[in-house]
Amino acid sequence: MPTSHLTPGNPIHALAARLRRLPPSCGPVRLIGVDGHAGSGKTTFAGELATVLDGAPVLHLDDIATHEELFGWTGRLLSEVIEPLGRGGTARYAPYDWTAREFGPVRELAPAPVVLLEGVGAGRRALRPWLAGLLWMELPHEEAWARGRRRDGEAQSDFWAGWVHAERRHFTEDPTRPFADHVVRQCPQGYEVLPGPVEAPGPDQFITHRDGPSAAW
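^ thats the sequence. predicted structure below, dont judge the formating
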């Protein structure tokens, strides 16, 4: 990871400072959603942002979703993670093992000033009331999916065929981008952080998931 990504004064540091100043949204926690198409770089970006936020916890939705519930995990996330954090308590959840196809040992997630919720669907309608901020990773869906397929290899080609259909349906029924506070683009050196549709006045206020460079379908 190039250290220039984390140099003070870069956009990711300015973003971290803004996130720290937000009012808590989930009990004492500022819960920040990092959403975008599969393969768009959410996990890498969330890891770098967490570092700048002095080691903020990152909850990966890959640990919550399962083969049977690619997007049907909202109830478990609310009951196991969101509601305990909202009470100021420690969340407990069992991460899903995608190889063994079963849940692993229980993990604990204690309240922290900022917690990052990273994954496709992090900005879904049911979660937005609990979010202090919502970030969208800006990468066209076909490019993001191609990156994801290269990353996972031929062995996962069948999974990706089903995933693309499920993700397409999800963002058609429950788009995230129109509600993003910031849009994040990965650059050759670091990231560019732009106002999202929620923050940008004028025509951008009416951007939907069908518009712009990350148009879903």
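The chain is about 30% helix and 20% strand.
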